[in-house]
Design goal:
Rossmann fold; about 55% helix; about 10% strand; GMP Synthetase, Chain A, domain 3; 11 strands; 4 domains; 6-stranded parallel β-sheet
């Protein structure tokens, strides 16, 4: 009967949406088959009602097509002790607090992931394109995931935005989960960690927060470490947490745009912890690697891009992987929407807009926009003036420069004749005020639209 049931499932898969099949049909298995009665196992009681209402008649029809008339029953295979739900109005619920019910897992959901954000499906070692720019970072990440890296199990991935730091750090998480090398993988950004600690302090649950990261965590993936600049209390807590994790021989992966020594207002205790592990940098990919990345992306997303067009995109877009993806998908989408053959001319029309936007979004361009909108001079903008009508536009200009350019914060600060610590403070000040969604929020939205449209 297992063979016939497999054939039935195969036919049903062709007739219903894929997500419905994976959710309701794929988990079912044959328990027994006796005297024309087929009993199928279900993950829980809720499945039974859903299956009877929506799929039972479909199952029976498919069996008839195979020449079998069967009566189908469903049975939950979830073990349960002392259920607090009375059956047919009988029983009582006095001991509900002592029940031990095992919750079934949803199909496609990995219950072993316990903390922070979900790992992206495609961010694995197999899907990462290795080039001269990233070979050492790739090898170090893989060795850490496999437990073969000598010394402390800590890695710091350094690189600009869009070069693959997130991909490699999450690939470590995927690997240790897939190979059952750890049960609890916590993937968070530095901002997530900060907000979680603030909420724990506010809600009087700081002990639970500490226990979660110090005792329960087996692999910690912490991105955008530069976000912690100037946050002294968060830095001290993270430093203590790292001591616990290192003593327990846990795996730790950090990522950031700056070296620990270059992050302003970073606690010396935390800085020393961050530099204990291996620091490896991911640089911009060369032409050969860019071509490989485009071919990989095109294959994954089933885009048919001719080789000359692929090479043209790789030649024109050389800053980061996200830029390459944008160009690739833009070319593929325009060709599909217009029903045109994808050629160099089509690619040129798409990439012209990307290059135009990239060239125009510069720190100098943002300065001119701010001066124009706030009616101040560029001399005022970079002056030592502490007047509110000068300070706020300056902070907004620094914030937008950080958001829309690839320049490091140190370079942005010097462009406004400010130390990089002051630039960090400006970015944080604007971000804090934006959360209130007041006047500044509307101003920044207006300015952002102008920048993104190239109308400045």
């Amino acid at each position: 009967m297992d063979k016939f049931w497999a054939q039935v499932k195969s036919q049903i898969k062709k007739t219903i949406p894929d997500h419905s099949y994976r959710m309701w049909v794929d988990p079912l298995e044959v328990l027994t088959f006796q005297e024309g009665r087929l009993c199928l196992s279900t993950p829980n009681e809720f499945f039974i009602k859903r299956l009877k209402d929506n799929y039972l008649s479909l199952f029976e029809q498919e069996f008839l097509k195979l020449g079998h008339s069967v009566r189908i029953e469903f049975k939950s295979t979830v073990p349960r002790k002392q259920s607090c739900y009375p059956v047919n109005g009988a029983g009582n619920t006095e001991n509900c607090g002592n029940r031990d019910v095992i919750q079934a897992c949803l199909p496609g959901f990995d219950p072993k992931f316990h903390g922070g954000r979900l790992l992206k499906k495609g961010y694995t070692f197999d899907d990462f394109v290795v080039g001269d720019n990233s070979s050492f970072a790739y090898s170090a990440s893989l060795c850490l995931a496999q437990g073969k890296m000598n010394g402390a199990g800590m890695l710091y991935l350094l690189g600009k935005t869009g070069l693959g730091k997130s991909h490699l750090s999450q690939a470590v998480g995927h690997h240790v989960i897939a190979h059952k090398k750890a049960l609890r993988v916590y993937y968070v950004t530095a901002e997530d960690f900060t907000n979680e600690m603030i909420f724990a302090l506010r809600d009087n649950t700081i002990d639970t927060f500490k226990k979660k990261y110090r005792k329960k965590c087996e692999v910690l993936i912490l991105e955008d470490i530069h976000f912690l600049a100037g946050k002294n209390a968060i830095q001290k807590e993270l430093a203590v947490t790292l001591d616990y994790l290192l003593d327990a021989d846990r795996k730790i992966i950090f990522s950031g745009c700056d070296l620990p020594d270059d992050i302003p207002k970073l606690d010396e205790q935390l800085k020393s912890r961050l530099t204990m592990g291996l620091v490896t940098e991911i640089k911009a990919p060369d032409f050969k690697t860019r071509v490989k990345i485009l071919r990989k992306k095109a294959k994954n997303f089933d885009c048919l891009i001719p080789a000359p067009v692929t090479e043209y995109i790789a030649q024109e877009l050389c800053d980061n992987v996200r830029q390459l993806e944008s160009g690739l998908f833009g070319v593929a989408a325009k060709g599909q929407l217009l029903g045109r053959h994808i050629d160099i001319e089509l690619a040129k029309s798409v990439l012209a807009n990307i290059r135009k936007q990239q060239k125009r979004i510069t720190i100098d361009g943002i300065k001119k926009l701010i001066c124009q909108e706030y009616d101040i001079t560029e001399k005022d903008l970079v002056s030592k003036s502490r007047k509110k009508q000068i300070v706020k536009p300056r902070q907004v200009a620094i914030f937008l420069s950080r958001k829309y350019t690839d320049q490091p914060i140190k370079k942005i600060g010097s462009s406004f004749k400010r130390y990089h610590a002051t630039a960090i403070y400006s970015v944080n000040a604007v971000e804090k005020e934006l959360r209130h969604k007041g006047v500044l929020y509307e101003q920044v939205r207006y300015l952002s639209k102008k920048i993104e449209s190239g109308k400045f």
